[in-house]
Design brief:
SH3 type barrels; endopeptidase fold (from Nostoc punctiforme); 3 domains; 22 strands; 12% helix; SH3_16
């Protein structure tokens, strides 16, 4: 199965109750374990990061290609999301949208547009593939995006989603939660460097420069860049406490 909705909320409770735990992006593969026709909810696991929870079953669809088929090439939405259109053309009225890093298959290209597996069209320049690069630069482009607990898109995300998605854009797979992300890389010894990850109890931030922190956080309720030392002092004074680990990815 794959996610057919643009963005699919995942919850811990079978009736969609409780906090939003994460979101699944369009085109991500999932393993379907159970479905309740009465409630319409499905119990699934994200094949990429292993996250398990309940989602609206209507947001899922069978994979476009079977195991013996030769599927169309898969791309990512590399722009900050894309509009969808019923036909190619600059003046077409949008009939939907997809988030950043949604996975799509291109069935046809015409006049600078791509027809996706869902039958809609989007501008071809907004599609690409993950490419090695500076994941910090990717994260910096998300400054100002609202903070959303469990969020995983340019419409709203949390601290660990910022890290996971920025790394994904550069071709690096990462776990969804900050405690699991502590296994990335190696211990960061000495002074902070650009690209280091700092961890607290339930929080992760990116070192954008030796004296600068970049993170999605509840203090600013957004992705923000701020001076490192004042941020460390402010966070240490909260229930989050002091830094518990520092990791270096390269």
């Amino acid at each position: 199965m794959r996610v057919a909705a643009p963005l699919l909320d995942m919850f811990a409770g079978p009736d969609g109750s409780g906090a939003l735990t994460t979101q699944l992006l369009h085109g991500e593969a999932v393993d379907l374990y159970a479905a309740d026709p009465g409630s319409g909810m499905a119990w699934v696991q994200n094949a990429a990061d292993g996250y398990v929870g309940y989602v609206a079953g209507a947001g899922l669809a069978p994979d476009e290609a079977g195991p013996d088929d030769d599927p169309a090439p898969e791309f990512l939405v590399t722009g900050r999301g894309t509009q969808l259109y019923a036909a190619p053309g600059l003046k077409q009225v949008p009939c939907g949208a997809l988030p950043w890093l949604a996975r799509v298959r291109v069935a046809e290209e015409r006049d600078g547009y791509a027809r996706l597996g869902c039958g809609r069209w989007c501008p071809r320049p907004l599609l690409g593939r993950a490419a090695p690069g500076d994941f910090v630069a990717v994260a910096e482009r998300l400054v100002g995006v609202p903070y959303l607990w469990g969020g995983r898109s340019q419409a709203g995300l949390d601290c660990s989603a910022l890290v996971q998605l920025a790394l994904a854009a550069t071709g690096v797979a990462a776990p969804r939660d900050s405690d699991q992300q502590q296994a990335l890389g190696a211990p960061a010894d000495g002074a902070c460097r650009r690209g280091d990850l700092l961890f607290w109890r339930g929080h992760v931030a990116i070192v954008a420069a030796p004296d600068t922190l970049l993170h999605a956080n509840a203090h600013h309720m957004a992705v923000a860049i701020e001076p490192l030392r004042p941020a460390l002092a402010r966070i240490a004074a909260t229930d989050t406490g002091p830094v518990t680990a520092a990791r270096r990815l390269a």
